[in-house]
Amino acid sequence: MTLPPLADILASTRTVALPLATPFRGISVREATLFEGPEGWTEFSPFIEYDDVESAAWLAAAIDFGWMPQPKALRHEIAVNATIPAVSAIGATEILARFDGCRTAKVKVAEPGQTLVDDVERVRAVRGEMGSEGRIRIDANGGWNVDEAEHAIHALAEFDLEYVEQPCMSVEELAEIRRRVKYMGIPIAADESVRKATDPIAVARAGAADLLVVKAQPLGGVHRALEIIAEAGLPAVVSSALDTSIGLSMGATLAASLEQLDYDCGLGTAALFTSDIASPTLVPSNGVLTVGRIAPDPALLSANAATSERVAWWRERITRCHALLSSGVTE
Prior knowledge:
By secondary structure, the chain is an alpha/beta fold.
């Protein structure tokens, strides 16, 4: 990939601050910077706490999507899951209603300050709302040790789990918990062990996961994510990083180009925002997203514009990450 001049990126940047309907992993407002390349609009939105080295991969992804032709789409619609933050049981059913027609729900568990009882009640509420035909997957974001994960999976197994995402943080722990619960027939998925790893294939090489959760931005873009999926040789679920509709269109492009797509994807998260940058916004309709480029609505860009101080902060961040990419640092 040829790195475009920094000035070309900064010329069209628009930084937005999008409010969420409910806090999600401590975030109540999601900031993102959008800019336009020869191929269309793209997004750079590493989380605030990420350092420049980690964030540089997100800039590489934005450049890939804005400047490079994307792979051929093998499908034009992507089935997506509802995403349920670590809220109360009542709150979980309210949030589920925001995801039109989704047949699958990913429920967050292992939230700091909460208990397994909270997780059980939240998952129970979602199962009750979706009925026996709905699919439920849980995501612990690496919040358990192996013994805690084993206990929690047993407690939650009655709800017919599709898979458990990142129950433990390390590859070694994932391999151990996968071994312990294999007899239960509940697959283990890896997320952080892929997108935050210096070697994203290590989890597959270690036999520590049954499938991968992949996100285009953290992995350096659609093309790089496809390389990782192919090398890992495992089924993939394409998910979002709480992106705007433009970032979600990047994820949908990735999902659309996969020959094998056995699971609903985690790309419906714009439904968690109370405002977005596109009209119509890229939210699930009858459980699916339409694949295609998204252009921002100028009025929504203005309505959701970040403060001048935050705009300056993001432009400086892009400048530093661009310098890292120029020097060959990508991870």
